[in-house]
Every structure is written in C-alpha cells, then in structure tokens.
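Quick question, first post here. What does this chain look like in 3D?
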Amino acid sequence: MTRGVAALLALIGLVMAAPATAQTLQLQKQVIGSTTVPSGQAFTYRLLYNCLSTTAPCVQAKIEDVLPPELSGLAANVALTGSGQTTSATYNATTRTATWTFVNPLPAGSTGEVTLTVRFPTGTTPNGTTTTNSATFSANNAASVTATAPVVT
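> Answer (accepted):
Ran it through. Tokens below.
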C-alpha cells in the first residue's frame, strides 16, 4: 500500500511539475508603399503580430527593432505607432532600438499591427543605397520570432 501511495504521489508530482505549454508567436514585416524612396523621404514599415494560442496568453510580449546603420537614427526621424494592445511604443536613439511593449499578458489569439516610420539620412545617402531591416517578437513563454522586411533602396 505504501508503494502504491508513493507511486501515486510521484505521478502527481510529475504532472504538477510539467512545464506550461509554450505559446507560438508570429510576426510579418512589410513596407507600406514603394520600396524605392528618395534620400530624406520618410517611409513606413508595418509589423503584423499574432499570439497564435487560442487557450493561453503570451506573457511579457514585446517587439524590438534595431535600426540598421543605413537609416537615420535621430529620434526626430523615427516615429512609432502602437496598437490597442500595446502599453508603450518607444525609441532609444543611443541603441537605435524601437520597442513596443504589450499588455501583460497579451490575450490568447491576439493579433494586430504596429508601425515604424524611418528615413535615409537627408542629403548624405547616395543613390542606390539599400537597407534590410528586421524585428523580433518575443514573450517569456514562447520562442522568439524574427521577420525581415523587403529591401528598401
């Protein structure tokens, strides 16, 4: 009887110690409009996000986008818009990082978009300069995903 109780307690302990199911994140990055822009003209990236689970939320979700060196890193040349599910949309000119922080937890099945408007430096970018820009969507209970926009010239 004690062996049976011990086995049952061990089984309960294993079930209780099982890790929570990891969530799945999805991120797409697009350029709104033309992928050929004149030096100094603003253009916008659209980031489409999704917390794919239908049963559990995404915990501590955020999107981070580090601007490549070809783009202007001046705060005056960078604009972010959030969504109804973001609590903040900030840009750090020192690290060149745009960050969107989501409500915590981000409800299961949440989907939406945020935007990032940037530009090549005015008057100093030679014709034909290209840039590739990526963003990463992460949550504490999900594997991070990275999306790259089409090349902009």
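The radius of gyration is 21 Å.
Confidence is low (pLDDT under 50) at residues 5-19.
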